[in-house]
Amino acid sequence: MNTPSTTISPLRKFGWLLRREYWENRGGFFWAPVITAIIVSVLGVLGTIASVLLVNRLEDKSKPFLQMGKSSLHANSSISDPSVLGAVGDGSLLSGIAIIALVLAFSVFFYSLGALYDDRRDRSILFWKSLPVSDALTIVSKSLWALLLAPALAIATGLALGVVMVLLGVLNMKLIGVPGGGAMLWNTHYFRVALNALSVVPVYAAWALPAVGWLMLCSAAARSKPFLWAVLVPILSATLLSWLGALPGISMPHGTIWYVLGYRLLLSVAPGTWYIDETLIGRLAASADSIESPQDLMHLIDPSRSWHLFAGSDVWIGMAAGLAMIALAVWLRRRRDEA
Amino acid sequence: MSAIVARNLTKTYGGKPALDGVSFSIEPGRIVGLIGPNGAGKTTALKAILGLTPFEGELSVLGMDPHARRNELMNEVCFIADVAILPRWIRVSEAIDFVEGVHPRFSRAKCEAFLARTKLQPRQRVREMSKGMVVQLHLALVMAIDARVLVLDEPTLGLDILYRKQFYQSLLNDYFDEGKTIIITTHQVEEIEHILTDLLFIRAGKIALSASMDEVAERFTEVMVPPERAEAARALGALDERQVFGKTIFLFDGIGKARLAELGEIRTPSVADLFVATMKGTYA
């Protein structure tokens, strides 16, 4: 008889599954945000150089005007107001995060779409299935990457890019001679922005769950071309339903149909799209006018505002639908016979 | 307890039976050659055994229903389902780390010993390997797993003859023991003939022959008959006959060896010849 088999706890296996996902997808999870950050930083440096050159040329040609401008800067006390500089710094940090969040939207979209399809296409699924790892655990590890780990990595990269943007801003002000510009460096609320951004990760996970679930379901179900299935099925059915609504005697809730099929199944992979939901959109339009004080900018990613989402039924229904679709993907992957 | 028992195992694809009420049993400590022409149902049978596909009928592997208890079963069963199916992005070192991380019966030392006989480097990715190297890596990973049932579906396709010989040698010497069961399918029957203990021929979804190698040697006899005795031999009802150098070679099933020896020189047929005789008319 063989030696009695020691067992490996599901938690340890899960750890290896997470590592496995990272090995396979470090291009999307790590390199895409990092390379984007590097490119944006380089563009920022070029922009700084360009602005300095421009100011120097202007200074030669039109000294009087510039003197006037500078003195008016002095006169406008708010530029040296630390709270304004801090808000500009916070805005730079946020813009860094926003740029990487856009990259995240694409990498999560295509990751979820390929997660249960690529290994079926190259048949390596048969290798994974020859190991004592359940399909459910595998799919949970993939969902965790899409919903929590990839966003966390993206926010870390986005913050680093934000810091570079703040430094470039300070450098720029120093070089063109804006007095007191250096104060931005220590008036920016790094920790507050970082904490706020990180606290949005669970909101993202809850919000993106139906979209990630749908994409993974397509990834598990499609015999080929999961992208077409994932995109065309919701768009065409929404179109069809809208078109039916045009017939006399049938009334269709067009807004809701497009919101559910287009926005929640597909576009919700993009971070921040929860701000633009049906009810919030009006509130946001109203509050856009009210961004007057620097503090208002912070409210944009104020966690309490994002966490507000959980007060509505939308996100809960979405989560339930997302979990159901992931469960269906597990079932399909178990049943699917890859001949 | 039998390692594998199938009773009336059936699997249909789109109304066409790939397995048509198949029954067989495989004892522990056997090396079984599952042999059949293309499309006979070999791969379907293996998939059912590995729990990769739902099926009808009864099937038990190590006492478990392979589809219902697949996760448990994979602790005890290992397989190479097809050639070159390792993920293209993985590195040798990552593959070893992962299998070690999730498989309780994997031995890193054994795997590294197998890899030492190849040119594979730890940092090398599958996509940078030749087809043969991918198979070498896969075999090294699988041979380092102390599984109770090992299923090899065309394991040596793409390997040169030197490595193939070496592989079957170490499969027999380093891997196999009386507690293990190995099922092999291959089209290169001659190469595994000497390591098999049992034969399972499958044809059009049905078992055409199920016998141990000893039974095969007992039952089947090949006789090289000179032309003047050919008619007498034919009268005994041969399974197959073919011409070689002006003599006729007859293959008989269940005819006494002493009687056949009177007709000409007798010997035990090779698995390949037996296979050809059994499968006659498959593509007709």
Largest sheet of chain B at a glance? 6 strands, mixed
> What is the percentage of strand-forming residues of chain A?
under 5%
Helical content of chain A (DSSP H or I, runs of 4+): over 70%
Oligomer: heterodimer
Describe the protein.
The complex is a heterodimer of chains A (339) and B (284). Chain A contains 15 helices and no strands. Chain A has one domain. Chain A has 339 residues and is mainly α. The mean pLDDT of chain A is 84. In chain A, helix 3 packs parallel to helix 9 and helix 6 (135-176) crosses helix 15 (313-335). Chain B is of the alpha/beta class. Chain B folds into two domains: 29-42 and 66-195, P-loop containing nucleotide triphosphate hydrolases (Rossmann fold); 215-278, Alpha-Beta Plaits. Chain B is 31% helix and 28% strand. Chain B has a six-stranded mixed beta sheet, with helices on both faces. Chain B is globular, with a radius of gyration of 21 Å. Chain B starts with a strand and ends in a 6-residue tail after the last helix. The model of chain B has no long low-confidence stretch (mean pLDDT 90). At the A-B interface, helix 1 and helix 5 of A face helix 2, strand 5 and helix 3 of B.
